[in-house]
Specification:
With 129 residues, the chain is mainly α. The chain has helices spanning 6-10, 19-46, 52-59, 62-90, 94-126.
Length: 129
């Protein structure tokens, strides 16, 4: 293995074997987002009213709460995948890259957890209040 040229330094190392999975996961979440957001828009347009009580009663239905939670997870997972690629491409300092991806992971997991908690709280207590 040569050390003089760029190709000589990487020859024989092979691929990291995670790029295709990452790419596919991004596409799958994009399709899921498209379907779930279209479902959300269609359901919101068919509601009799968009006042607080109507929306809370609508979200309290398990057939609505579960797809809403799935949409939250899919959106934040898609965000995490896309932002990770951007950070890997543009943040070159190893330490800053590590902490940027760590912050991204905390943001994505925290945001998804907060969204799921909000929907669960409405689903379990919103219709009664």
């Amino acid at each position: 293995m040569g050390t003089g040229t760029g190709i000589g330094r990487v020859r024989g190392l092979g691929s990291a074997h995670h790029g295709a999975h990452h790419w596919l996961a991004q596409r799958y979440t994009a399709i899921g987002n498209l379907l779930l957001v279209l479902w959300l828009i269609f359901n919101l347009l068919t509601l009799p009213g968009l006042d607080y009580t109507s929306v809370v009663e609508w979200i309290a239905n398990p057939l609505v709460a579960v797809p809403m939670m799935l949409m939250i997870v899919s959106v934040f997972w898609h965000l995490r995948l896309g932002m990770q690629v951007m950070l890997e491409d543009y943040v070159h300092d190893k330490g800053l890259s590590f902490f940027s991806i760590l912050a991204l992971n905390f943001y994505a997991i925290g945001g998804a957890a907060a969204g799921i908690f909000a929907i669960a709280k409405i689903a379990f207590t919103g219709a009664a209040s």
